[in-house]
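Incident log, structure service

09:12 report received: a user says their structure output differs between two submissions of the same chain.
09:20 pulled the input from the user's history:
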Amino acid sequence: MRTCQLEKITIHYEIVGDGIPILALHGWMPDHELMTSCLEPFFQRNSGYKRIYPDLPGCGLTKGEPWINRSDDFLEIMLQFIDKVIGKTSFILIGESYGGYLARGILLKKFSQILGLGTICSVGEIIQSKRNTPEFNAVLRDEVYYHSLDPSQQKELDGFLIVQIKEIVDRFAKEIAPGLKRADEEFLANIQDTGNYNFTFDVDEKLPIYSGPSLFLLGRQDNIVGFQDHFKLLSKFPRASYVVLDAAGHNLQQEQEKLLHAHLREWLDRIDYAITGEVTSQSIV
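09:34 re-ran on a clean worker, output below:
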């Protein structure tokens, strides 16, 4: 991995490919591998983009420094990271879960630099007690496989994985679980427990209308962040596709990978048209 030395913290990150920069932000507790596993299978077949995958503070190899006390600090760190790694170049922004909330803060601060905003299962309502979330419901389960697991393994699936088949469980264990184990849980829990998980300002209220091509991909059965709280955002994003996928929870990128790729391609087509103004047989504008 590469390192980016900022004034008070070292950010570990990866860069893959060349072309238009895409900054990809993971959620709370996993690390950049969640995003590489989510996006690289798509970008291996769609060239022309330079993907930038940082580990947020307290996640992966980036240390949770004691002076970092709230989400405002996460935002300032990412703004400094952008200045150093991307500079003044326009870029595409995509965030998963908490990374989607953080992305809206970046959009506010780097408004004219953002070519397009995409989110996957992003946090609409940051205050957890106020979220509109459905009850957990495993909508697709291989009963033979499920009952071959011991009760502790079943408990790990229940409450999070909406699609409970061996392929998805194995991918979760390979692509996401290791990042969760690397997280500095004490550091991250302290930010949440002290009520500093949200910005000190209402980012969605402050955001001006953003007319860049946008994409909100959400899981109909996402019992972690829900999907309905995102309706309040739509007036700020007149060029947004708001897509709620059935048989998808907070692990949408694995549970509905084919649809994820299809919507990413359509979103990037819209961004390409916004940049070039050229209409091709593949353009969706």
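09:41 both user submissions now match this output. Likely a transient worker issue. Closing.
09:42 reviewer note: The CA atoms of residues 17 and 44 lie 9 Å apart. The longest strand covers residues 10-16.
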